[in-house]
Write a structure and sequence with these properties.
Distance between the termini of chain B: 47 Å
Strand content of chain B: under 5%
Radius of gyration of chain A: 21 Å
Order of helices and strands of chain B: HHHHHHHHHHHHHHHHHHHHH
Shape of chain A: globular
Helix content of chain A: 25-40%
CATH architecture of chain A: 3-Layer(aba) Sandwich
Oligomer: heterodimer
Largest sheet of chain B: none
CATH superfamily of chain A: Zn peptidases
Structural class of chain B: mainly alpha
Largest sheet of chain A: 9 strands, mixed
Strand content of chain A: 15-25%
CATH topology of chain A: Aminopeptidase
Helix content of chain B: over 70%
CATH class of chain A: Alpha Beta
Number of strands of chain A: 13
Number of domains of chain B: 1
Shape of chain B: globular
Distance between the termini of chain A: 45 Å
Number of strands of chain B: 0
Number of helices of chain B: 21
Number of domains of chain A: 1
Structural class of chain A: alpha/beta
């Protein structure tokens, strides 16, 4: 290897260059710390998770929790998005329930950005876009961040070589320690991700959540995709919903929660609380390993020549006709959650939760996601605060 | 042409600029990689994407810290005289038992890799320890380095810690359970073969000048091998072992801090050494590799951004069934030029999915073995570069030449295990 001769002048030039590059790049990285702005529908109360787990107060893990109670008593349902901030249809679906829902009976709890610490950065070498833009009916534009699967390492570094799930002793790659969906049911004295999982468990227990959704996306080449994963306690209701969805032309695989894969919501919420947990997966090409050019267009349209070829090779677990739009993915989540809400009362009358105002599958596909977002109030409408 | 254009063209541009920069213009590899990354982005219409270039380098932050701290540790134990004193003792004890010495040394090289999951850690600790032994006993320098590099890779893959297997398992939600036997099957036979190929023949034939050897040994023993001298090694074993074997009880300090604390404990050995000089020398030695990793980080981020990564992965998956195994044996190590862990994630996961139906644990174990060969692949070639450094060889390509036969055997063994995965599973479980 040839060694270049350095002089004080070359050193100074390099230092100045490094300083300039660092400054410019840092501006882009720091912009990811500005939170996304949401506009809760009338009737929602805004809380923070630390109200259920005080050790989270003042930490970057303290995520907003929105609760809307209907005029009639009924059950309580949790819709949680953003466990993995690189799976955008999950948080976008939760935002839809936050901005559109009118609860008549029971209570709806919405957490749009579950691992809010994953929304402030992107995964190195994944080349993810930082933001998604949606045009609203009034022509304004709202943006949402595309984050990382894991807690920002600034809050969790260094990762151990091996992550050991505290309750089971299960061993996983060390980076999984920052994965919220390997940290459940959480511990009150663990690291921030584990305490976040513990806080979510406390919320489910104290608010007596009857039905809890954890929304996700998966690579199209992953076997559990366009699917729901149900704990034993949720299985009967889930089976009813799958049949209903099939009837509506929305095919959905139903997978039992594996007992030997620990740390995930569908297993731990079921085992450690009284709730019925459901995990939903849609197919997101922008997080897959086979994807081609990685940009906002891929996230929004799911159009990708590499996936088209992979589908022709029979390597995918979803029908792929050249696209998997964000509208389709949000519509699948939305229709599934809504069908659960509709069926919950049939399953147990006392737990009925009646919610109006949520767009249908067809409406989302026809009008697009932006059409159902609420325009930002003027004070939040500047580019910086749109986050 | 539809499939090739434009991603295939971008691939050629990136590879072409790298080759031009590194070989024609003789630029440092790190600079050539960075230029290739920038060229790819410019050609694809992304300009100079500063954020992506910087973000890509962060993929190797932990690796860089481990490399720098491990090298400081190695230089420290060298400065206090421990390396030579241990080598002299081993030569006196075991030189009459060449077979035992060959096998024992390979196993010794593997141990830090088995505990940490890092081939760099293995090369720079026990690799550095055994290098003088082998060289004094007549094993040529290049073969010594090759044996250290191969042993370190087998150590990285052997249980209990195998990070590529964990990464592949994580990609398909498979817990890291039941891997110990398959990983031993993957690595131990190859370690034995490597010892017999690269170390044993020269040890057996060694007929050195006894008087000269005795003189050399006395020189090496000028630092008395007291228990106190072993303190840095002991501290390192306790820190690394504690994290591995007492999880939940032992604080997770991370490998870089473990290495630095172990190096600092050398102050308690009673030997005089200069911390600043040692650290400066270590960083100087590792700077080119750290630069290469930065360049590779930019390269892979731009590959992902402009679609070259997907083009490469799907092209490998598109190989006809009979060529799939050839694709695995070649593309996994080749992609390891970026990093063995990156190869496990980007290609290992799709390959294990393509092989669903066979026993996934056996398949993932074998894929991790083949991915481990990435640590021999230039320009990163972490195992090859550091093995060359510990024997004082400047051109690591000369070391890699001696790794070719064991590496081919490794890839063939990995493929054989995949092909016979059902049979292997029946025997092991």
């Amino acid at each position: 290897m040839k060694i270049l001769r350095g002089t004080p002048v070359t050193a100074l030039v390099l230092l100045v260059l490094v300083g300039a590059v660092s400054f410019l790049a840092a501006r882009e990285f720091l912009a990811m710390r500005v939170p996304d702005v949401v506009v809760p529908a009338p009737g929602y109360e805004t809380h923070l998770l630390s109200e259920w787990e005080p050790s989270l107060k003042g930490t970057p893990a303290d995520t907003p929790v929105y609760i809307q109670a209907g005029s009639e008593p009924g059950g309580t349902v949790l819709v949680m998005g953003g466990t993995h901030p690189n799976e955008p249809s999950s948080s976008l679906t939760a935002v839809l329930f936050l901005e559109r829902a009118r609860v008549n009976r029971g209570r709806l709890v919405v957490i749009p950005f579950a691992n809010i610490m994953g929304f402030s950065h992107n995964d190195p070498q994944e080349a993810s876009p930082q933001r998604l833009h949606f045009t609203l009916a009034d022509g304004s534009v709202r943006t949402f961040k595309y984050g990382s699967r894991a807690t920002n390492p600034i809050h969790a570094w260094p990762a151990p070589d091996v992550y050991i799930h505290p309750q089971s002793g299960q061993e996983l790659s060390g980076k999984e320690k920052s994965n919220l969906n390997r940290a459940h049911p959480g511990t009150p004295d663990g690291d921030l991700t584990s305490r976040l999982a513990y806080g979510l468990r406390q919320l489910i227990v104290k608010e007596k959540i009857d039905l809890a959704f954890d929304l996700h996306e998966a690579s199209p080449e992953y076997p559990v995709v366009n699917a729901m994963v149900a704990h034993e306690r949720s299985m009967e209701l889930a089976a009813m919903v799958v049949m209903e969805l099939e009837g509506a032309g929305i095919p959905m695989r139903l997978e039992p929660s594996p007992k030997n894969l620990r740390g995930l919501t569908h297993r731990e919420w079921g085992d450690f609380t009284e709730t019925m947990p459901i995990l939903l997966e849609t197919a997101n090409p922008s997080q897959g390993r086979l994807r081609g050019r990685t940009d906002e267009d891929l996230v929004l349209t799911g159009r990708d020549k590499c996936y088209t070829k992979a589908a022709a090779l029979g390597r995918l677990f979803v029908p792929y006709d050249g696209s998997q739009s964000i509208e389709l993915r949000v519509a699948r989540h939305t229709a599934t959650v809504k069908t659960f809400l509709d069926m919950l009362g049939l399953f147990d009358e006392a737990k009925e939760v009646d919610v109006e105002g949520i767009p249908t599958y067809e409406e989302l596909l026809g009008q697009g996601y932006g059409a159902f977002l609420t325009p930002l109030p003027l004070k939040d409408a500047s580019p910086g605060s749109q986050g | 042409m539809d499939w090739f254009w434009p991603e295939g063209f971008y691939t050629l541009v990136m590879v072409g600029v790298f080759v031009l920069g590194a070989f024609a213009l003789k630029l440092p590899i790190a600079v050539a990689m960075s230029l290739a990354a920038v060229s790819g982005a410019v050609v694809a219409g992304d300009g100079i994407p500063l954020r992506h270039l910087v973000e890509g380098t962060f993929g190797y932050l932990d690796t860089i810290l481990i490399i720098a701290s491990a090298m400081i540790f190695m230089k420290t134990v060298e400065r206090i005289g421990l390396l030579e004193a241990v080598a002299a003792r081993m030569i006196r004890r075991f030189r009459s038992f060449p077979l035992l010495l060959s096998l024992g040394i390979l196993l010794l090289i593997m141990v830090p890799g088995m505990i940490t999951g890092s081939s760099t850690a293995a090369v720079l600790t026990t690799g550095a320890l055994v290098a003088p032994v082998l060289i004094r006993l007549g094993v040529p320098v290049l073969k010594t380095a090759a044996a250290i590099a191969m042993g370190a890779i087998y150590g990285m893959i052997a249980p209990p810690i195998n990070l590529p297997a964990m990464i592949i398992g994580g990609g398909i939600d498979m817990p890291y359970v039941g891997f110990a036997l398959p990983l031993l099957l993957c690595t131990l036979p190859l370690a034995v073969v490597t010892a017999l190929l690269l170390v044993y023949p020269d040890l057996r034939r060694f007929k050195g000048d006894e008087v000269a050897l005795e003189e050399q040994l006395r020189e090496m023993e000028r630092t008395p091998l007291t228990p106190r001298l072993f303190l840095p090694i002991l501290v390192l074993v306790v820190l690394l072992g504690g994290e591995t074997f007492l999880p939940g009880v032992w604080p997770a300090l991370g490998m870089p801090l473990d290495f630095l604390l172990a190096a600092l404990s050398a102050f308690l050995t009673g030997r005089r050494w200069n911390l600043l000089e040692t650290a400066t020398s270590a960083v100087e030695d590792t700077l080119p590799v750290m630069g290469i990793l930065m360049g590779v980080g930019m390269f892979i981020q731009v590959m992902t951004l402009i679609g070259v990564r997907g083009f490469v992965v799907v092209s490998a998956l598109a190989l006809p069934a009979w060529l799939l195994y050839v694709g695995i044996a070649t593309s996994l190590p080749l992609f390891g030029a970026v990093s063995a862990f990156g190869a496990a994630s980007v290609l290992g996961v799709p390959f294990v999915l393509a092989l669903l139906g066979k026993n996934e644990i056996i398949v993932a174990s074998a894929l991790s073995l083949i991915a481990g060969l990435g640590d021999l692949m230039p320009p990163t070639a972490l195992a090859g570069i550091f093995a060359a450094q510990v024997v004082g060889e400047e051109n690591y390509f000369r070391v890699l030449k001696h790794c070719v036969i064991p590496a081919v055997l490794t890839a063939a063994w990995g493929i054989a295990i995949i092909l016979g995965a059902s049979f292997v599973a029946g025997v092991l479980y």
